[in-house]
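In keeping with the milestone schedule agreed at the kick-off meeting, the structural modelling team has produced records for the first pair of proteins. Each record is given below as a sequence line and a structure-token line. The laboratory manager (R.T.) confirmed that both were archived under the project's standard naming scheme.
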Amino acid sequence: MKVVVLGAGLIGVATAYYLWRDGHEVEVIDEEAHPASVTSYANACLISASRALPWPTPTAGTTAWRALTDSSAPMRITKPFDPALWRWGREFMSYANTSDYQRLTRAKLTFARFCQTELESTLQETGVDCGYQRNGLLYVCRSEATMVAAHARALLVGEHGNKTRVLSRDDVIALEPSLAASTVVGGTFAPSDAQGDSRAFTRALATWLAGRGVKFVWGEAVIARLTQRAQKYELHTSKGQINADAFVIALGPKTPQFGRMLGVHVPIYPVKGYSATVPIKDLTRAPKLGGICEDSLIAHCPLQSESGPVMRITTGAVFSGQDASFRASDFARHREHFEALFPGALDWSNPSVEHWACQRPMTPSSLPIIQQHRFDNLYWNRGQGHIGWTMSCGSGRVMADLVAGRSPSFDLSDMQKFPA
């Protein structure tokens, strides 16, 4: 069967791999010139399966109020009167209760572990090199308040099979000696979490697939047209109509716009995050492990670039509609908080410092949409949000199951669904 995948980010390329593995004729279409050029271009690169917790919590109301009123908050709302945000927010708040939080926590943590196993299988089967290391992630605390919260989080994820060690300051420094000059008071360590260059993975896997017959079409936007009183549809690029037996929509934060062309409301809102990629000038002062500061919610991950070792630093969750722009001032917190942990490690004045902002496709439940919907041959694989790297291969495998008519490899009953 011929299957066309729309979108060549992490999710689209991973889906193409599993469809190819099933023996389908696969074609991937993307309006960019290369794989992983938007949301998957410069993300945190952390495989944080132990931290895959849902965003709607019983205290989400307090978080939302701070997002509206505190410009220094990690989560901010800069477009409060956006009707799309209000619609998304109403469903988000409907999950902000103890019962749904427990249900979504179980589903998201279990799915993240399943996805990490699939990612590791894909790496082994293809030999793709992305610097993947399953040597754990370190989550550090600079205050007693965040230490208390981190301990509670460790207990919660432990109930769902995620081993997490609670660490004293001495324990943290033993794991990461470069933190000795910081004011860290303790933290947690998740030994099964991992790190790797997600852009390198996506592009290498796309090259691997292209060498095995998967067709990639670049620089082409896809337009959907409803026909015959909206009972059928056609997909077109500038080169004409696209014909296939099945289509998988993996367009990231652009999925809602595509859905509108088909008369479908897709429960996804774009949430902007920022990243800085900075050359390392002193390896002795730089962290060896990836991790997150629990106080600032800034993540860091050491990577190897063509020009040498670099540090990827990410933060932010900004509800700004379709605005993906950024300014130099948006990265001040990256430098301030990283330097507080690892002073003197990075070359911030280097001209190769790269700043980036992208929108991540968040669903109200913070679980992805993996389902067939509206038309028999139209499938949706979107909404992995801020952990698309973690969820990429597992999402691809389950989507291939659906296209093939098999029972899904993972129970999808708690995943985000389209509105009834």
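The second protein of the pair:
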Amino acid sequence: MTMHVTQADKMGFLTESNTAYRRSVSLTRKPVQPRRALAAVRKLIADKDDTEQVFEIMNALAGRSIEWGYRRLLDYPIGGQQAYERNELSEYLENHDNLRELPEGSVGKAYLDFVERQNFSAEGLAMESRKARDTEIEAAHPHAWYARRLRDIHDIWHVLTGYQADALGEGCLVAFSLPQTRSKGFGVIAAAVAIQFARARTGHPCARSIWQAWRDGRKAHWLPALDYKALFEMPLEEARRMLNIPEPRLYNSVPTHLRNAYLGAKTM
């Protein structure tokens, strides 16, 4: 039997029967997998540094959030420019020598101080994201590029919001990220961390600080569309005012030594 191959097939045009089409649909409409997410949440609660589980949760609960975010990106002139240029932020963020040339007090210099203090790296985060099952984050597709963008700006948002890399700070940041991205995974992680801190009974507003972060995320300007290279040259405090990001008052009121308090308590 001879299979007829059309010119369209040779050129790689998409049809509903081929792999490329199915892959593009899966990037847009990921099925929700609550059991997979719950298993990953339990592992993450037990070890807050198990970043692979964050991406497991995000993959399991992504739904159509990436499609929504990419479409919204195109509604902003600067966002449309970012989508058109499709630069990879991780490459820019990995160049610490260039970041050291930025002014003191700038967003970029604060980012560099943060990642070097924590021994973080953009490439390290990228490597963790590739470990998730069935991930397509490295695909040659606009939605995959947008997913990489969200991954790469996570630590920049730590700097912009003032939330540190402790358990409470991570819980606050994912709560802030929920209204910004509409990714249910962020909501599940934030809720799980809030519950654990409530159980820990620290006597401080840990769970309420996560709730405040969610409200602040709703009120802030939409951050995924920003030109981050231009933002990095701005003074940090000026950038926060421009983006309507307030001081994390409740989070800051929690003593530093209690911001990992739930890790000693019984987990989910």
